[in-house]
Please model this.
Amino acid sequence: MIEELLVAVAGAAAAAAVYAGAAARVVKQYERGVVFRFGRLRDDVRAPGFTMIVPGVDRLHKVNMQIVTMPVPAQEGITRDNVTVRVDAVVYFKVVDAADALIRVEDYKFAVSQMAQTSLRSIIGKSDLDDLLSNREKLNQGLELMLDSPAMGWGVAIDRVEIKDVSLPETMKRSMARQAEADRERRARVINADAELQASKKLAEAAAVMSDQPAALQLRLLQTVVAVAAEKNSTLVLPFPVELLRFLERSTVGPAAAVSGTPAVAPAPSTSPVSDAYLKGAAHAAEGVEPVGDLTGASVEPAPTEEGA
Model:
């Protein structure tokens, strides 16, 4: 009797162990368990940890609640300003309702992928090339809104959407490079012109100061000589005032006119102004020169010859 009781207890323990092994389930921290009993959804979603189900009756489906990173294949389209581009993106999403992710859509990952591709094509057609290149934050927000509306019905929340790369044709790249180069050249010319304007104003102020104080020009000349000599060059370039050349020219005109006997003619005032002292000196030099008579003498004609001589 006792032996039969022990055998029955051992059999019951073995059956209980088998049942526990078949009914025991472990749900990880980043997962949620959805139970179907005879094909119908149980209201309670199993939390992470150890849980039990009825073997042969219940079916436990584990749903990953982590953020999924899904790359969107490159989509080729035509922008609003008629430029052909290829754009690829990446979508970050996660499941917020495990039951809806299993019931409302057959494969939520595939559904999000297809929705992202179609939304990306739509964004390309509605945007300009400049927006795709420089205003990506606004486009990312637009993509996120387009994906988030249907995804919420699938128990999925879109975390963020990022446009990774925009591929342009080679001809368009060369055109943009030429445009950027022309714009930089234009800005360089404007900067140079502005610098010339500022320099001309400063030079005009300096010229006004030097015209009031002639000694300032001489001091500036000496500073230039010192700056050139400091370079230890074998050749020294010395600026020569034009007024000194005019003075030497005036000095040589007077003696030359006295020797030739022709009165000195003062140059036109429009070319080089002549002082009164110079005119008086030239007239005095012309009066002191005596006129020279005819040095050829009387002409001598040959005597006529007699005929027959």
Q: What stands out?
A: Residues 264-274, 292-301 have pLDDT under 50 and may be disordered. The first helix runs from residue 2 to 23. The CA atoms of residues 73 and 82 lie 22 Å apart. The radius of gyration is 54 Å.
